[in-house]
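Q: Sequence in, structure out?
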Amino acid sequence: MVFFGEYYISLTTGNRLALPKKIRDQLENHTFILTKGFDFCLSGYKTQDWEKKAKELMSASLLDKTDLKKKRIIFSSAVYLEFDKQGRFIIPKNLLEFAEINKDVVIIGVGDHFEIWSKEKWEVYQNQIDNE
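A: Exactly. Output:
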């Protein structure tokens, strides 16, 4: 199955976020990997899909500065997270700051992963796409 849809949610106290049921139903054992994404969002992966992506990244050349930058950003920020029965989990502070998430977020499905955006950044991104 693939991740799809657009879900508007708010952070609760303690930087907790509840994953939508359609997203969490695809995650086995109430776990997933969260890391920095592109365009200042967060990317979430099924654990087994993350392992495949990690192997692809590991095969990238250490001599290519662009590949090395990607590896540094993605691996240094990756965290293994568990959510409770209501789908709630805590977003680490460094990831909240990176994505500039304050209160209102949008979770979108992107096929092989899902992304967590600040509502403001998502709206700006959509406007940019509309104007292209």
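The beta strands are 6-10, 16-18, 31-36, 42-45, 79-82, 88-90, 104-109, 114-118.
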